[in-house]
Write a structure and sequence with these properties.
binds 2-amino-4-trifluoromethylsulfanyl-butyric acid; four-stranded antiparallel beta sheet; 28% helix; binds cobalt (II) ion; single chain; Creatine Amidinohydrolase; alpha+beta
Length: 255
Amino acid sequence: MHTNPVIIIKSPREIHELRKSNAIVAEVFQKLRKAVAPGVSTRELDRMAEEIILSRGATPAFKGYRNYPATLCVSINEEVVHGIPGSRRLKDGDIVSIDVGANLNGYFGDAAITLPVGEVDQEVRRLLEVTERALHTGIEIARVGNRLFDISHGIQKWVESKGFSVVRDFVGHGIGKNLHEEPQVPNFGSPGQGPRLEKGMVFALEPMVNEGSHEVKILSDGWTVVTVDGKRSAHFEHTIAITDENAEILSTLSY
Ligand code: MF3
Ligand code: CO
């Protein structure tokens, strides 16, 4: 990680463009939320997402990125992130993380949610709640005057206070005319450190939270990240812009 990352400040016009690409991402989730059910294959979800993105005049942001082969990342249970869609079908009691990116007019949107499939156990329901709250804890801290790692620290503190762990090997990021820009936004760190947050900064915050240990590894497909202990993991992500004193969530539907 660079100690002095160059963080590109976005103009109000650019933030407006980012609002549009992220609205498409939000629309994908609106559709997929309803489609997630026992028996559905991850490839079917991928097709639905791609169809929506293309119909809005955008392109899937992940497809072709470092040769990634799909529109979505779909990660089930002990899979943390970057699961490749295929013939596997969701089953009752699974949790499924869905990550999607869209490029509209050269501006990127990026978000993720983790959903229960059918009836899930109490412990994993708590994992989902804690992870989603971790994201919103980070968003609350993302305001002018705070420092970057205040966000990281706030997320880590919340998650660990609930007995779960944050993944360290993958992080959030700046986003704009590129899917990944500086700075990296870790989900752990020391308060009072890192660059000061300013109006016009845009970040994808994305806590990945494990039931057990924070350790992860990559499978032989070169993409799928799984927990080393085989316990489950959840992932929530929003693209946010610091527009006033606080942050606006771009990857959400405003209607
Ligand atoms: N949301 C993830 C990220 O920001 C998705 C990237 S998947 C990839 O890293 F295929 F594009 F790498
Ligand atoms: Co991201």
